């Protein structure tokens, strides 16, 4: 494959994002991107999509592909490639760059545009770039579709519970149907699955990424448990998730700042999750925080007296019959995403270096998409 070498700044114009403080945003359909990713929405875009956004402050080297119009803020660059560069191919090529060596500034890591522009890029023919982007993009598009389905599934589950309790006349005390920080056996040897706070989803349902490490102190949990972040600012950011990624009987470890909730016998495992996602529960929990303003924590013992709206035992069973199979399907889609991402990450450097042909890559993708 013939490639032409060029200085990156000669073929791509990296432009500064525009300042848009949260107080100036008008809620709308346009995604607002900062160095850490999606930070909100606005009524107007400043860049016509699709948009390639590159973090320049803080999380330097973080790269985002936005298929729609967008509003990159002033902690980012956005890319305007010349005619010889396919924008989505450029998105994938940037993933091959080690941005750590480009960081400047003694405080907050920063990416200088001059340093970015001075990088050398090897350009295959434009049509070849497009073919590479199509192969890798097919994997990312499927991942994005599965994530949208996960968000829709979460909304369906929460809406179903809300409907069931909208006219409920009965309440139940939390401790009668949920165990808080239940006892879980410790793992004594080897390693155990570990869930870091950063990987607990915000406004989500299922965990997408987790690790493995020797068992140490912290929260212990099993499949069917709900994890609830109790510390500021994770509490305000609604970090909260349902555990489904362990093997049967396996024990996972996580942050000491998790509260673990488990449904009591005869109660659907999905119910602690949906109740702890409600505004009423979160308001109750917020009233039971202690500590200084910057490091407040919800105290688990204070939650056991919470009175939850209850739809009746029969409706609660019906809810479990609706929610649990849906969660299982969403878990299967999440597992598929892990395979898709692994395939993409393996193919990306091979395609960019020319060590594998597009045709061979397409054959691999056919087996997973």
From TrEMBL:
Key word Hydrolase present: yes
Keyword annotations of the record: DNA-binding, Endonuclease, Hydrolase, Nuclease, Restriction system
Domain called Type I restriction modification DNA specificity: residue spans: 7-146
Transmembrane segments: none
Coiled-coil features, chain-numbered ranges: none
InterPro entries (UniProt xref): Restrct_endonuc_typeI_TRD, Restrct_endonuc_typeI_TRD_sf, Type-I_RS_S_subunit
Gene Ontology MF annotations: endonuclease activity
Pfam (any one): Methylase_S
Family recorded in the similarity comment: Belongs to the type-I restriction system S methylase family.
The protein's name in its UniProt record: Restriction endonuclease subunit S
């Amino acid at each position: 494959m013939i490639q032409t070498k060029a200085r990156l700044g000669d073929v791509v114009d990296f432009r500064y994002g525009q300042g848009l403080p949260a107080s100036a945003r008008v809620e709308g359909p346009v995604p607002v991107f900062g160095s850490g990713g999606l930070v909100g929405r606005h009524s107007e875009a400043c860049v016509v999509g699709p948009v390639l956004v590159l973090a320049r402050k803080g999380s330097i080297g973080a790269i985002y592909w936005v298929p729609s119009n967008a509003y990159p803020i002033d902690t980012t660059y956005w890319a305007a490639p010349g005619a010889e560069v396919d924008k989505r191919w450029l998105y994938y090529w940037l993933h091959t760059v080690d941005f750590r060596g480009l960081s400047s500034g003694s405080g907050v890591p920063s990416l200088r545009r001059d340093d970015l522009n001075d990088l050398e890029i090897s350009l295959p023919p434009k049509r070849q770039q497009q073919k590479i982007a199509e192969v890798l993009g097919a994997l990312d598009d499927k991942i994005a579709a599965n994530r949208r389905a996960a968000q829709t599934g979460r909304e369906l589950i929460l809406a179903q519970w809300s409907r069931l309790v909208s006219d409920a006349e009965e309440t139940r005390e939390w401790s009668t149907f949920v165990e808080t920080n239940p006892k879980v056996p410790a793992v004594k040897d080897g390693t155990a699955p570990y869930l870091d706070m950063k990987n607990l989803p915000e406004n989500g349902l299922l965990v997408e990424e987790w690790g493995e490490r020797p068992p140490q102190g912290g929260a212990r949990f099993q499949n069917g448990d709900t994890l609830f972040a109790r510390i500021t600012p994770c509490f305000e950011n609604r970090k909260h998730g349902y555990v489904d990624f362990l093997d049967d009987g396996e024990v996972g470890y996580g942050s000491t700042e998790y509260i673990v909730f488990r449904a009591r016998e005869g109660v659907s495992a999905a119910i602690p999750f949906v109740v702890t996602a409600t505004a009423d529960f979160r308001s109750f929990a917020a009233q039971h925080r202690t500590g200084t303003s910057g490091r407040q924590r919800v105290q688990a013992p204070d939650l056991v007296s919470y009175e939850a709206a209850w739809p009746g035992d029969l409706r609660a069973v019906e809810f479990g019959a609706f929610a649990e199979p849906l969660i299982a399907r969403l878990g299967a889609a999440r597992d598929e995403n892990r395979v898709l991402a692994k395939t993409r990450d393996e193919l990306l450097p091979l395609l960019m270096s020319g060590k594998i042909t597009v045709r061979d890559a397409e054959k691999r993708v056919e087996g997973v998409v």
